[in-house]
Amino acid sequence: DDVQVLLDDHIVKTATMRGSPFIAPFETQIKEWENRLHRMRAIIESWLHVQASWLYLEPIFGSEDIRSQIPREGKMFETVDKHWTSIMLESVKDTNALVVTSQPDMLEKLHEAEALLEEVHHGL
What we know:
The protein is an all-alpha fold and 124 residues long. It is built from six helices and no strands. Helix 2 runs parallel beside helix 6. The chain is elongated, with a radius of gyration of 18 Å.
């Protein structure tokens, strides 16, 4: 929550700066920073959705019995689990929010994981 509040505050401040008549020398940098902040917000929102679903489903799909009974959903969960594990392993190396959210294809992996988790939920 603290990170999201701080992030929203920085997004508002950046938007205010873009409205300044003195922004011209910094316009490119401000646009890049604003895009980075918006991407970071999207990553955090997606992260929270994936985390909640993964925490709910992980104990279910931790069992080989259940995975063998619903193999399609089991494979989808395995894909999500691989994405989630790789993201978490990279995230603990440096916990700075700017570093963590700069992982290559992070948002795309999280969006894919969200879609797969939605299918898994529907399949249960």
